Amino acid sequence: MTQNSYSLAELVIAACAEVWRDDGEVMATGIGPLPRIGAGLAKLSFAPAIQTTDGEVYYTSEPVGPGKRAAEPEFEGIANYDRVFSALWSGRRHALVGPVQIDRFGQANISVIGDHKKPKAAMLGARGFPGNSISHPNSFFFQNHNKRAFVEGEVDFVCMAGYNPARYRNGAAPKGLDLRRIITNLCVMDFGGPDHQIRVISLHPGVTFEEVQDNTGFPLVRPDGDIPVTPAPTPEQLELIAKIDPNNVRATVFKDNPVGDRRPAGDKREA
Amino acid sequence: MLDKRMTVDDIVDQLSDGMTIGIGGWATRRKPMALIRAIARSNLKDLTLMAGYGGMDIGMLAATGKIKKLVFAFASLDHYPLEPHFRNARQAGAFEVLELDEGMYHWGLRAGAMKLPFLPTRVGIGTDIVNQSGFDFKYVTSPYEDGEEFVAMPALVPDVALIHAHRSDERGNLLTLSKDALFDELLVRAAKKSFATVEKIVPTAQLDMQKNSRYNLVERAMIDGIAEAPLGAHPSSADPDYQLDLKHIKTYVESAASPEAWAEYKAKYVDVSEADYQAAIGGADAVKQLPVPIY
User: What class of enzyme is it (chain A) (predicted)?
Assistant: First the structure.
């Protein structure tokens, strides 16, 4: 495998892993294959203290990737649901989740599309999103960065609270509200603009700011100067990713498993 | 001698139209499906269903038109993330809903269990959960120096709780042997009455309580009746006795495709005795061989 022959999925996994870099000893929950592998990558490299689960009820010593397992992992603790609530209310968790809609405030929706009483599309229900959002850090992954996901107004049903003063009776969000990063198929963003506006912090190789903005239903903050390119996964990271995901589930996430560096040939330099 | 043994149908006879019924389990884990099927077959109507961590319990009662109001945080079949019968009913506006956060539902049960009218929580603040027309959420301010304002999550108090456990003696001393007891204990404590189906009723000595004390869900005084219902959680799991039946869940999911498909499923798997149900799903031995699922 040459330096530049990584897939978009692997680029996204490496970007997902970054969200846990400075978290210390917290529960790391990655929902969906790429966030889950990303948490594993963080744990096996720069964030060894994070705790990850088998996807069901145990904390495991080593990260457990998606799909069939060659061997039973070593269990290091129990993560029954009662304990998960206790952990998340304590703030010692950072979740990376994949909502259906998000808006300019970071408010996110997994409940319904359309009217809540008689929705056009009923989805999961709010699950634990309301509590997660105001208790501990949260980041997001969107497989398809488009205006259906990044909506123009507010999301149809606010499941996760965001930086929207109008939603707070005293104008201020609870202290626990801490939205960190948004990783998509096009870029990485954070909430670092004025008043927590969503800001592009890196573009995936071959993607322009204009392309991201055109696929977003609200104005994004453009940082001053050149926007960094999302760092390519290192050969060591690619090895760890392959170890965490021996079933290669990551290859099934994006249609046709595109390459990570989408710049035209001849324009590929070290990111 | 204290004897709380009943049949599944005896338990359903305790229910009446308009009641608020709380259902235990979580998505595809330990749903009291033998009871749900019996309710689906009954003439009961206008039920308020409290199924915070919902799965086929919600779907099957939605498909049979039993629900007037649903109190829930989600409906999911895990490996099939969206509950198809729940979706059909929601999209038809078939019943009123009160949608809660998972933790708020837990907190509501806890308030009910503690006989408190509410518990304060930050959960719900900043979301549409607290803006639903179906319930007028109130707020409380901390009387201490912090002065923080909280949502007052009201107690959830079902008229009847229905749960599935693994073992019981005839007095209602339960063992829930799964790694995760979920929130069944709080549900039972919150409810006015509670009934449990169990895989097997055994003599008290066979509960081996010294060894199994961690699995004793709740004191028997909280349990009003028990019914032996082997495979009573199928197609959800009653780990370690048996795992979820993904193949059957697929059949169930496909039954939401059309009224005809549902009628066919209902005739084969709902409008039948439990003995016929077990034969239709391939028998107890097949269910006990089901592989451990990967989440």
Answer: transferase
